[in-house]
Amino acid sequence: MHSGRVVFGAMDEVVFGRPASEALVEQLNRLGSARAFLMVSGTLNRQTDIIENIRRALGARCVGTFDSMPPHTPRGAVIAASEQARAANADLIVTIGGGSITDGAKAVQLCLANDIRNADDIGTIRAGRGAPPQLKAPMVRQISVPTTIAGGEFSATAGVTNETTKVKEALRHPLLMPRAVILDPWLSLHTPEWLWLSTGIRAVDHCVEGICSREAHPYGDAQALKGLSMLAQALPRVKADANDLDARMDCQIGTWLSTGPLASGVPMGASHGIGYVLGAEFGVPHGYTSCVMLPSVMRWNKPANAERQAQIAAAMGHPIEDAGGVLDRFIRGLGMPRSLREVGVGPEHFDRIAQAAMATPWVPRNPRKIEGPAQVREILDMAA
């Protein structure tokens, strides 16, 4: 008999298939916001007219723009954005960009609420393995317009990198989840192909590790299986024709569905755990970590969850085939990297990665029990 608990997040709305400039005005009207602070992609701000058009649509209600968030959301940039938002007396943060910007705004919400003004003090609000920190609830909330498809905008967790330790640290609060997400396929035409496709594999990874988890349940499965099917069909269509807006919309909705397991309490596994280390310590983009690790993790896990893995292969249109092999071919077909070597990580680093991965939230909850770094090393060797 199934048992468990699904906690619904603090998101009001998801708006899809509408231009962001139009939908954002409606959201500000709905929320009564008068002082929106933008956290945006530097490329979109400096090399296109997208952000300027949004500023024009918001008019006097736009009180500032921050466009300098590096990949993996370093603490220093979070503090810089927080100080700018505080000085602007923002009543809402609007993000337009990828996952690092989305996570950055979540962290800014906590910094504003808890009077965090320097990078070291972010350590006082991070989520650890012990009792959660006593946090004041964010009063300045967030609306997200994602330009990539890793799916972080649908969670109440942010990953922030400690530049000193090179460790990605989690910040959590129920109100970190954006109040609304706007999925605009036209905006995504400006996203580089490698970034769109690789973050799409990150969304595939959410589906796959959610379905394959020891703690999976039907509510999460239903969303992840549909999301995986949509992504498996739509990502190659975008690869074939970058201007296929229907395919881009399907990718965005598939990504939304991919977050169903994690949002309903299902843990991820070793692909995500190892990916945290590869990102924070070696600067490997989020999507690429899933491209290089997921098939190897699946093959290593197969003795523990072959029946679950069969559902993955079927959802991707290849019933009775090996899921690890299906994923391998799929990722290669999109032109993405498939080995640690291709992302600049050599075997000389594997022992250190294995040790650090054991300290992540997900490796200890991998569906095939990982007892220690030696078993993580086995997976890394498969992905070399």
Q: What can you see in these coordinates?
A:
The chain has helices at 20-31, 42-47, 50-58, 75-87, 99-113, 193-212, 218-240, 245-258, 260-263, 270-282, 286-315, 323-333, 350-357, 373-382, and strands spanning 13-16, 36-40, 62-66, 92-97, 141-146, 157-162, 167-172, 180-183. The strands form two sheets. It has a six-stranded parallel β-sheet with strand order 1-8-5-4-2-3, with helices on both faces. Helix 4 (75-87) crosses helix 5 (99-113) and helix 10 (270-282) packs across helix 13. By secondary structure, the chain is an alpha/beta fold. The termini are far apart.
Give a short overview.
The protein is of the alpha/beta class and 384 residues long. Helix content is 49%, strand content 11%.
N-to-C SSE string, H for helix and E for strand: EHEHHEHEHEEEEHHHHHHHHH
Major sheet characteristics: 6 strands, parallel
Strand content: 5-15%
| Helix-strand category | alpha/beta
Provide the gyration radius in Å: 20 Å
Distance between the termini: 41 Å
- Helix share bin: 40-55%
Task: Give the overall average pLDDT.
Answer: 96
Number of helices: 14
Overall shape:
globular
Low-pLDDT segments, ≥5 res: none
